[in-house]
Amino acid sequence: MGNGTSATKVALPIDTPFKLPSPLPSLPQGEGFGNGIINLGSGLQVCQVVSLNKIWATNEGGPDNLGATFFEPSQMPQGFSMLGCYSQPNNKMLHGWVLAGKDETGEALTKPVDYTLVWSSESLQIKQEGAGYIWLPTPLDGYKALGCVVTTSPEKPSLEKVRCVRSDLTDDCQIDKWIWGQGKESDPNARERVKRGDLQDCQVYLHIKPMLGATFTDIVAWLFYPFNGPGRAKVELITVPLGKTGQHVGDWEHVTLRISNFNGQLCGLYLSAHSGGTWYDASELEFQDGNKAVVYSSLNGHAMYAKPGLVLQGTGNIGIRNDTAKSNKFIDAGARFSVVSAEYMGSSVVEPPWLNYLRKWGPNITYDLAEEAETVEKLLPGKLKSAFDKLVKSLPKEIFGEEGPTGPKLKRNWTGDEV
Questions:
Q1: Contacts of 131 (CB under 8 A, 6+ apart)
Q2: Which domain of life, per UniProt (predicted)?
Q3: Any idea where the domains of the chain sit in the sequence?
Q4: In degrees rounded to 5, what are phi and psi of residue 249?
């Protein structure tokens, strides 16, 4: 159990509520602007509640390793109900609010029918103020839970605690920012499992679209890679590890099959690699088990090629290695796939919510380029140091850092042709 607190409590930024330096000016009167309540129609009114009660806090992990605090509203306006709790990192002044709803018709809001415990801090060896429990309300059919309930007890909250909202009055939203993550790894092997991925259960996600005046159909197979390993450089006859260079969490790559609408035959294959890619005629491809095209993904990375071997990203005999080879580790895309978007087919294909996540799928951490390059240069003979230095200076800056990718919908080829 990790329920300890420090002997001397240090004041944190979150202990001070944020206020603007001056009062707001008189706001112009209009259609409800600035009066504290917004009428969303269909009998639902919402307001922001800024008076908060602290429920639970952790004192490590998250931004600046200061932890996070969880709150619920302490004073609810007459007739309004809580829709969820609030949390923010401890490294900022308290500046948040929770949304409350008022049902004018008796149909916009409803009590949950149950709760599911989605997370508990009981087993975490972290600095925390007691144990925290996060509960997801179970709504009636036709309703959705907008938020969670936080408690310091393993007992389920009261069904009167929160309200769920009628589904047609809700919409998908994006996660704004990272609030908190536990300070210590509870499972030392978890990170390695995530980095390796799971070939047995993974699948590809298909985007199908007409191309070239509807004379062709493009089937774009998207693959998510959980981790990109560190790069390696070839400097003449020497192969040297590049430390952190090229290493990052998460990446999206894709393969596009161009099918003729005249006869249903595969005409070409586009393979993405780094910031671009290459078209291959069907005659240039390898096939296996009939007409299944074979694609090779590079070692420690995910650049894709049509043939096994070495592709050097550089000039002459100096560059970044992209090694591919036949292996018993492979994905049969025809066996495990799901169609996630096909606009021309109308509503018969429903896009999953994650497809509209428009932020980055991983952290953005920049390395010290000079330090990384210097570490590698120490391994090289004198005459090769300058050649390697030229290689480093010629590579795109994005190689030298961890930068999570954006999702498929933000790629240039989503609405057009491959470039």
A1: 1, 3, 56, 120, 121, 122, 152, 154
A2: Eukaryota
A3: 13-20+28-169, 198-410
A4: -95, 125
pLDDT in tens, 2-47: 444 444 567 899 999 998 899 888 877 766 777 889 999 899 999 9
What are the E-state strand segments in 59-198? 68-73, 81-82, 86-89, 98-103, 109-110, 114-120, 133-138, 143-144, 149-151, 164-166
The 8-class DSSP code of residue 8 comes to S
Contact 39, 102 (CB under 8 A): no
Closest CA to 257 of 280, 235, 230, 241: 280
Among the listed residues 223, 148, 172, the one whose alpha carbon sits nearest the alpha carbon of residue 358: 172
Say how far apart CA 137 and CA 117 lie, in whole Å: 9
Q: For residues 77 and 100, is the Cβ–Cβ distance under 8 A?
A: yes
DSSP class of 237:
T
Name the residue with tokens 């005629």.
Answer: 281
pTM value is: 0.61
Residue with tokens 């200076």: 393
Contact 367, 401 (CB under 8 A): yes
Query: What is the pLDDT confidence band of residue 75, given thresholds at 50, 70 and 90?
Result: confident
CA gap 314, 133 in Å, rounded: 52
* CA–CA distance, 205 with 223 (Å, rounded to integer): 7
E strand intervals along 246-363? 248-260, 266-273, 276-281, 287-288, 292-293, 296-297, 304-305, 309-315, 318-324, 337-341
CA distances from 53 to 93, 94, 127, 132 (A): 15, 12, 20, 15
Torsions phi, psi for 369 (to 5 deg):
-60, -45
| Nearest-5° Cα angle at 403, 316 to 378 | 45
Q: Within 13 Å, how many C-alpha atoms sit on residue 363's CB side?
A: 11
Give the angle subtended at the CA of 47 by the CAs of 44 and 51, to the nearest 5°.
145
pLDDT of residue 237 exceeding 70: yes
